[in-house]
Amino acid sequence: MQPGEQPDIASIMQQAQQMQQQLMAAQAEIAAAEVTGQAGGGLVTATVTGTGEVTGLVIDPKVVDPEDIETLQDLVIGAIADASKAAQALASEKLGPLAGGLGGGSLGLPGL
Fold it and tell me: What tens digit of pLDDT does each residue of 25-46 get?
């Protein structure tokens, strides 16, 4: 935009509305997605939604040792952490392009 030019408010509002719709669609897609993480070479697998809610946990019977509960606990925590990392990566992938559109004057206004 050249100095002294007035921003086209209707165009700015339309762009903002489109970005809001894209953001809402991306958020819905993330919430509906499920990702998995694993630990112990797949002995424990956790499934979480894109929002981080744990929806499933599979434990290979080979790893269940009543004398070594600590290892099983560590594997469960590791699988959930791995799945959570995958959920964060999914969110970054889906929201990244939208977040990039918020900077650099993309709406014709400084800082927007």
Answer: 888 888 889 999 999 999 999 9
